[in-house]
Write a structure and sequence with these properties.
Radius of gyration: 18 Å
Largest sheet: 5 strands, mixed
Strand order of the largest sheet: 1-3-2-4-5
Helix content: 25-40%
Number of helices: 6
Order of helices and strands: HEEHHEHEHEHEE
Strand content: 5-15%
Bound molecules: uracil
Length: about 270
C-alpha cells in the first residue's frame, strides 16, 4: 500500500483556525453539563490533539484529560497518550489522525458522571465536523465511556457509511499489560485493513507482544502541540503530577511541573 506522499511539515499545531472548530469552541457546553463537583473545571477545557485540517484518516476517542494535558493544552499526551501514539504508529500513522476526548474537562472523583444531553450533543457536533471535513476511514474508542459516545453518535446521526470502528481497552485501565495488549491486538486487526492510505509504508501489521516494549510508547510529534512548548513537555518521561504540596493548596488546585533530569539546563 502506498504511503501518503505529503510530508508532515508543521512544527506546531496552528490551533483552531478552521472556523467550524472555532465556532464549536465558542459554543462550549456550560456549567450544567460540566458541574465543578464532578469535573476539574478550574483547569479549563482541552479540546483535541492531531489534525483538524482535513487530513486525518483515523479518529481516536479517549476519556478525559489528566495533569500533563492540563498544562500542554492537548489531549492524550501523558503516559496514556504515548501508548496511544504507539498504537496509531502500528497502523502506519504518525500524523494523519485526530483525537478527541469524551469529556473536555478532567473527571473529579472516581465515578464517570452521566453525560448530559448538551454535553453529548457537543461531542456529536465535533464528530460531525471531523467526519465532514476529513476522510476518516476508521474510529478507535479507548474505554467504555468513549465507546458509548461513539455508539450514541451512530444512534443519533445514523450515518449511511460509518467508518470501521474498534472498541479498545483504555490505555491506563487497571488491567494487566498482557490483557491490554491482547485487546489492542484485536482492535488493530479490525482497523488495519480499513485504512487505504498510511503515513509510512507497511507491508503487514506487527502486533504487540505480551508486554509493552521500548518502542511501543512513541514520541508525539511537535506538530501536535501549540507553538513554543518545550520538547520535554512532549516527551514520555512524567513531568506533571497533581498536588505534591498539600500544605500550600488542596491537591485539586495544584499541578506540580518538574523538568525531567536530562532536560534541565541548570542542575
Ligand atoms: N488523557 C487524555 O487526554 N485522555 C484519556 O483518555 C487519558 C489521558
Amino acid at each position: 500500500m502506498a504511503a501518503d506522499p505529503t510530508p508532515q511539515v508543521m512544527t506546531f499545531d496552528p490551533g483552531y483556525s478552521e472556523s467550524q472548530f472555532a465556532a464549536l469552541i465558542d459554543a462550549l457546553p456550560g456549567a450544567s453539563s460540566y458541574p465543578s463537583a464532578r469535573f476539574r473545571t478550574e483547569w479549563g477545557p482541552i479540546f483535541h490533539r492531531g489534525r483538524l485540517d482535513g487530513s486525518a484518516r483515523l479518529l481516536v476517542i479517549g476519556q478525559d484529560p489528566a495533569a500533563h494535558e492540563a498544562i500542554a493544552r492537548r489531549i492524550l499526551c501523558g503516559e496514556a497518550g504515548h501508548r496511544v501514539q504507539g498504537f496509531v504508529w502500528k497502523l502506519g500513522l504518525d500524523h494523519s489522525y485526530v483525537m478527541i476526548n469524551s469529556f473536555l474537562y478532567s473527571l473529579y472523583g472516581t465515578q464517570a458522571p452521566r453525560a448530559s444531553a448538551a454535553l453529548l450533543e457537543d461531542r456529536y457536533r465535533w464528530v460531525d465536523a471531523i467526519l465532514g471535513s476529513s476522510p476518516i476511514e476508521a474510529v478507535v474508542t479507548f474505554g467504555a465511556v468513549a465507546t458509548s459516545v461513539w455508539n450514541g453518535y451512530l444512534a443519533s446521526r445514523q450515518p449511511a457509511h460509518p467508518p470501521v470502528h474498534a472498541a479498545a481497552t483504555h490505555p491506563t485501565a487497571h488491567v494487566t499489560e498482557a490483557a491490554l495488549l491482547t485487546n489492542w491486538n484485536a482492535a488493530l486487526q479490525v482497523l488495519f485493513p480499513a485504512l487505504s492510505v498510511r503515513d509510512r509504508t507497511l507491508s503487514s501489521l506487527r502486533l504487540y507482544g505480551r508486554a509493552l516494549g521500548p518502542s511501543d510508547r512513541r514520541a508525539i510529534p511537535a506538530g501536535d502541540f501549540p507553538p513554543g512548548l518545550p520538547s520535554w513537555m512532549t516527551g514520555a518521561i512524567q513531568w506533571a503530577v497533581r498536588g505534591d504540596d498539600p500544605t500550600r493548596a488542596p491537591k485539586a488546585a495544584r499541578i506540580t511541573v518538574t523538568i525531567p533530569t536530562g532536560s534541565r539546563v541548570r542542575r
